[in-house]
Amino acid sequence: MTQPIDEECDVLLRDGGIAHIRPLCASDREDLHALVSRSSERSAYLRFFAGGAATAHAYMDRLTGGAYRGHAVVALIDGRVVGVAEYIPDPRARDADIGILLDDQAQGRGLGMLLLERIAVDAAESGVQELVAVVLAENRQMLQVIDDLGLPVRRRSDQSEIEVRLTPGTDAALLRRIDTRMHEAERASLARVLNPGSIAVVGAGRDPGGIGHRVLRNLIDGRFPGPVYPVNPRAREVCHTPAYPDLAAVPTHVDLVVVATPADTVLDVARDCARHGVHGLVVVSAGFAEAGEASLERRLLRICRDAGMRLVGPNCLGIANTAASLNASFLPDSPPAGPLGLMSQSGAVAVAMIERAGELGLGISSFASVGNKADVSGNDLLEYWEDDDATRVIGMYLESFGNPRRFGRIARRISATKPIIVVSSWHGGSGDRTVRSRTAAVATPDVCVDALLRASGVIRETGVQGMLDTARLLAFQPLPPGRRVAIVGNSGGPDAMTADACEQRGLSVPELSPATQAALRSRLRAAAVRNPVELSTDGYAGEFASAIEIVLADPAVDALLVVYTPPFGSGLAATGKAVATAAAGRGRTVVACVMGHDGLIEGEVPCYAFPEQAVHALAQAADHAAWRARPTPPEDTIRVDVQAAREIVRKDLRAHPGGRRLDTIAAAALLSSYGVQVADSVSADGPETAAEAAAWVGLPAVLKARGPDLVHKTEAGGVLLDLRTPEEVRQAYREMAGRLGPAMTGAVVQHMAKDGIEMIIGGVAHEAFGPLVMVGLGGVTTELLADRAFGVPPIDRAEAARMIGELRCAPLFSGYRERPPANPASLADQIVRVGRLMDDRPEIAEIDLDPVIVTSAGAVAVDARIRLAPAAPRPSPCRRRLR
Known about the structure:
Layout: E1 9-12, E2 18-23, H1 29-38, H2 41-48, H3 52-63, E3 71-77, E4 80-89, E5 95-102, H4 111-125, E6 130-136, H5 140-148, E7 153-157, E8 161-166, H6 172-194, E9 199-202, H7 211-221, E10 228-231, E11 237-238, E12 241-242, E13 256-259, H8 263-275, E14 280-283, H9 294-307, E15 310-312, E16 318-321, E17 326-329, E18 337-344, H10 347-359, E19 364-369, H11 378-386, E20 393-398, H12 404-415, E21 420-424, H13 438-442, H14 445-455, E22 459-461, H15 464-476, E23 485-489, H16 492-504, H17 514-523, E24 526-528, E25 533-535, H18 541-552, E26 559-564, H19 572-583, E27 589-594, E28 599-601, E29 605-608, H20 611-629, H21 642-655, E30 660-661, H22 664-672, E31 682-684, H23 687-697, E32 701-706, E33 719-723, H24 726-740, E34 746-751, E35 757-766, E36 770-777, H25 782-785, E37 788-791, H26 797-805, H27 824-840, E38 844-855, E39 858-861, E40 864-868
Helix pairs in contact: 1-3, 2-3, 6-11, 8-9, 11-12, 15-20, 16-20, 17-18, 18-19, 21-22, 23-24, 26-27
């Protein structure tokens, strides 16, 4: 029996439940017959037409027989086979017949769409060009599923049957549809956890210091509106609430269970929850992977997945949702309500963040301490918070990324409408694929994290205070449309400090317009009105209000920063109220620095104790606004030869199973398959062949030594330039061979490139993060000047242009000291192509194109180094799956 391409995995259903999808095996025969027996006559008729159940049973025998040549997967819910899907390739053509049968009880949950997605992606990856289904015209549900899939569809019909032909693929349109369906399922799944109707706490003891007792006390004190059941076989009541010996004794169905029992009992508790149809499990118990018991954690997850339960933790603090009056955690205090959705991998960090957020008037919409992240992760919570009206800003403390590529896709979508702030302390290693290239040497985990977050529009902070400072501004003020800041204050020293901080963070403090200055002079006792606007030290609240109103009327001001030093003037309370009233309803960004005070003014204007805090938050907001305002470019349509690249990589790894650095000719061929411009190179194995090669490529010529250990050829004397005659080439080869000895195994000859800007384009496949692409100043100064920018594929031309513009050497492209201007667009095109190549071929461990010579005519790589290494195929983003 031919096995499907796909491996087994868990997937979320539309209603938030969980199904397990795996390849069909012969032992499924009885389960498939049982599926047919449970199916209604109507379902059997729609799938097998007039043959009905009899044909269905006979077909299941063929499906599990040794002669079957199709590709099939089965779906299981609660451990029972509830669906089967297949495609059967036609050996005479490039198309395949498809079919799906679902249990009647599993219909309406999105499982049919999941199975159709799965076989469509599998078929595309195995070279099928068309999928063919013959559907009864009355089977409107199946026809609707096919239409909603997101693939091109052609129909041909007679009176009773419709032949549907789909063109399988994995393009951007299909991925958008799949992401939308995944979002719907994730949202429903987490809603069952964060908005439960009833809760049980297993392990709720009578000791006030016990974790289970504290969770129960928080639920009761937080006035959770639904029933709360302590489960304790040795107590009749806990916290004046009737207790039950086990879940079977609980009088009603339980949606969410918090487990606070020893680790060696948790699996039995989970099995009991599975038997009683619990939707979610929050395991606060420790003693799992963090204690070296990874297998125990995997078994716990498997129990939850098989039963359709989501798992938060283990080894976590719990969860909270202030909108639902839910505090299923052992936090020392209930979180105050507010607009910040918060996730933390560290319980200690979570306690500090929530406590400080309350002190600052920020407050929490919902919170999850995910602990070991066995199941529910930051990606899941992002999907939930995207549509949560109570959440205006998302904050995350991350120590690892379970699926960085999916995080990037989700975060990029959400950041366009809702800010995400991340504090990350991820310091994982680079894996076992040994670093050898210049790019790989500088692509540290922290660089990868920074590139991933930046590409996704995520705001990165280095600490909790910075996160809360930035979150306050983003939660309560509109984004500034630009970087022009006006400053209004009552003390020259703090005003000057604020202006200096703005300049250091890339914010401008422009002179106000003559009309604005005149209005300020006519109405105020101002010592200075150009910007900063300096009121007198004893300036009263009304003067602050007038100055704010006048400055905000200036169209050249993007944001206003009020600097007030109490207790001068009218005092803190009156001045704060005047500031908030003057700023209200103007749709402009207003923040305040009230020296020595952190918080919110009148619940509306964020205030900071020191100028650098206020400026930092404002700069982060301006950066985020610029990211949102970036033009959305059309989808890049670059021509690439995917098959040629695949064959080059496959052939080389077959000859060198452990991987190797490609020779110059193979590297050029691989790059050329993706349209990367590489200088023509001809191999030479001696002085005479080198001279012949120079005549072919054209003089003047460049001679470059070849050898597996020659990474820095220039420093080793392995590059000779501007060789103008064949005899010079011969002599250069002899001298180079004598100097390098056995390290030189040959040479390549190129035509001498025109003078231009020497750049480097590099790439590295990071074990945890996937591919990362770098651009920077190249040549011998690469390490010395460290002028680099990084991007995460897929990279479009706009992102490539941003990377180039970030470099300190970017002004060189406009011409410098009589040098002609160069063409940065051609360099951007090379970056896009390298990113696409690395994204498509995970076997490419490292790429260095150094240098890439950029002139007004274009960009061409004159030296290319590529290292291949064995790598598992990268999971398709079009395959929905729980990690």
